[in-house]
Amino acid sequence: MSGVKDEDDESVSKNGQTKRGGDPGASRHGNFINYYQFHPAEERVRQLPRELLIPNRPGQNFVALDVGCNSGDLTIELHKFLSENLPDRKVSILGIDLDPVLIERAQEKNYHPELVRFECLDFLSDNRESIVADYLSQRQVDRFDLSFCLSVTMWVHANTGDAGLEHLLTELCSMSESVLLEPQPWRCYRAASRRLRRAGQPELDLDRLKHRSDDQLLRFMNSVISDQAGFHRTHTSAENDWGRRLMLFQRSSQWSGQVE
């Protein structure tokens, strides 16, 4: 990307300026304590494709999932966004994160617990299914209308390998009508590993990964979501200030139109 001072540093924007909050520090699972200082939730919401998030499935409830919700700022903004764009639906959202400290912070700032819920949960853990099934059952739906997985795929991929990333995507599709992804480019993998090294921690084991470039990563994720799960990619955003794109995938039964 042109104009970037150091392509391996996530805290530098496309125009070469240091982002708000500066260097995020080192993290093995992406659970940065100050994440929203350098990726403000309001800016993320402005990128959402409003015309593509309107549900085709009838019903009173609109139920969403935010995987890797951190301290909840973006989850709360997502609920506000969905509620404003779906005035005739009762919108509820479940935010999950594997860090108990971040979830505690999210719960403290949650002023609408009847509509926004936070759970400390590893999406790939064995107890996820029962918690998610109970949440959906309480809202009388079989699947989430929309699941957000924003800047999460790298952490699952780097820590659990190609099979872990495939498992994340297939499981996410199995419980969702639509999935909105914001995958990290390969430079972010290198940046995360380098920050761990600088902090005196073991680096991420990137050599074991088969899919190790932007093109390979996108082809792999498209293959899993489209070929295996039967979803259509119906929207890809322009690149944002931190060099990532939003990709919306919709279940075939809920989709009509042109495939990207």
From TrEMBL:
Identification of the protein by name: Uncharacterized protein
Organism (species): Eretmocerus hayati
Native organism taxonomy: Eukaryota, Metazoa, Ecdysozoa, Arthropoda, Hexapoda
